[in-house]
Amino acid sequence: MPDTLTQVLATPGLVFVVLAIAMAGLVHGFAGFGSSLIFVPVAAQFLPLPEVVVVLVLTGLVTVAALVPRAWHDADRAEIGFVVFAALLALPVGVYALTRLDQVLMRWFVSFVAAGTLLAVCAGWRYSGQLNKGGLATVGAAAGLLGGMTGLTGPVMILFNLAGGRSAATMRANMILFLAALDVALVVALAVSGQVTWPVVVMSGVLCIPFLLTLTLGQALFRPELERLYRGVAYGVIALAVLSGLPLFD
Fold first, then answer.
1. Which of 84, 101, 114 lies closest to 234, judged by CA?
2. CB of 250 within 8 A of CB of 46?
3. What is the full DSSP assignment across 140-157?
4. Secondary structure class of 128 (helix, strand, coil)
5. How many separate domains does the chain show?
6. TM segments (predicted)?
7. What are the backbone dihedrals phi and psi of residue 105, each rounded to the nearest 5 degrees, phi first?
8. Which helix (H) or strand (E) holds 230?
9. 34 in helix, strand or coil?
10. Residue 95's closest CA among 43, 153, 135?
11. In this structure, what is the dihedral angle of CA atoms 183, 52, 114, 126, given to the nearest 10 degrees?
12. 15 is in which domain, residue-wise?
């Protein structure tokens, strides 16, 4: 364990990885989204993308676990169960691509997805229609494929939101349950593929500390009357993370 911790602390670029996870926690704390969009593009400059995905998921599980009990009561569990099932079918394909495709190509793809999501959110685009079973299955499969490939499990759900006239509480609960289920499945799939190694687990434990501290700080700083300001800051930080993560600047 001490040797592994020493190895982790000697990781090149670790200070930037820590800063990325700290900023991800802060932004998620006061804006409610954006942690993966900030962390993945930055961390992928210093760590192999499969390791980044494992760290992101293991770190996120700590906070997701605290949100699930309440979300269980508010969510449309039948709908989310159907979407999760579709996501689970596509998830292994995404994990296979993550471990086989060229890393530079994957970083370009991550940057493209993050930038596209940011532009859509800034423009206020959301799908607000009613999704039928086929639409729900498509959204779930797309989220599972993208999550397995990049760790970005949220963008598809953020944009399609499974809305159709549901209350804000139900939509939020649906999102929490879906992401929790997908994160657990992603950890299992990555473990089966041999990506969850002891050094990566230790790295996740190290990064949990700044993430939880800044997440708590961000929640404490949140003021409803300043929501637009917080979102503007979140958009700016995500944009900087996406730009810094472009392989163009290596």
1. 114
2. no
3. HHHHHHHHHHHS--SHHH
4. coil
5. 1
6. 14-40, 52-72, 78-98, 105-127, 139-163, 175-192, 198-217, 229-249
7. -60, -40
8. helix 227-244
9. coil
10. 153
11. 10
12. 2-249
> For residues 115 and 242, is the Cβ–Cβ distance under 8 A?
yes
In angstroms, the Cα distances linking 90 to 84, 93, 141 are 10, 5, 5
**Would the pTM of this model clear 0.85, i.e. be above it?**
no
> From CA 208, how far away is CA 205, in angstroms rounded?
5
Q: CA-CA distance, 32 to 35, in Å (whole number)? A: 9
Rounded to 10 degrees, the C-alpha dihedral 133/135/137/139 comes to: -150
| Cα–Cα distance measured from residue 58 to residue 60, given in angstroms and rounded to the nearest whole number | 5
d(CA 83, CA 163): 13
CA distance 207 to 121: 27
CA atoms within a 13 Å half-sphere pointing along the CA-CB vector of 160: 20
Give the pLDDT confidence of 142-196 residue by residue, as tens digits.
999 999 999 888 788 777 765 455 666 677 778 778 888 888 898 889 889 888 8
**pLDDT at res. 249:** 60
Sign of the Cα torsion 233, 117, 159, 32 reads negative
Query: Could you give phi then psi for residue 237, rounded to 5 degrees?
Result: -65, -40
Nearest-Å Rg of the Cα atoms of the chain is 17
Angstrom distance (rounded) from CA 140 to CA 85:
8
